[in-house]
Amino acid sequence: xxxxxxxIYMERRAKKSPYFLDLESSTGLFDRIILAIKREQELxxxxxxxxxxxxxxxxxxxxxxxxxxLFAGQIQDSGMLQFxxxxxxDLGALxxxxxxxxxxxxxxxxxxxxxxxxxxxxxxxxxxxLFLYPxxxxxxxxxxxxxx
Length: 148
Description:
Blueprint: H1 2-16, H2 29-78, H3 80-89, H4 91-96, H5 98-107, H6 111-132, H7 134-145
């Protein structure tokens, strides 16, 4: 008998108090929650990737003057400019022995300076292209600076 009394009491309380209301989930709630979680994870991944590329772009543009200075210094020290100057000053001699001039220039190329400068420029162009690509530009700006 007492349990019947408790049951009736709880039913009356449930009708009066919002805390005892029997809430039923709406249709598709689980799917919407999973979709929102996946969207948030994708946003975090995109934001992390965007900030990584932004850091890479800043590093690349910061390193550009130093790699150019290294490249220009190695060209100056290699003596390649003298070969090119002689070749351009006497075009007849260049056409007569173009193979020797080509071999002399190829031997004096500063390979390390060229490699460092080329990698730096490729990195800068690649990351700059990512940020200037017209379709993704708006999306990346939204990801970087606004929540949604």
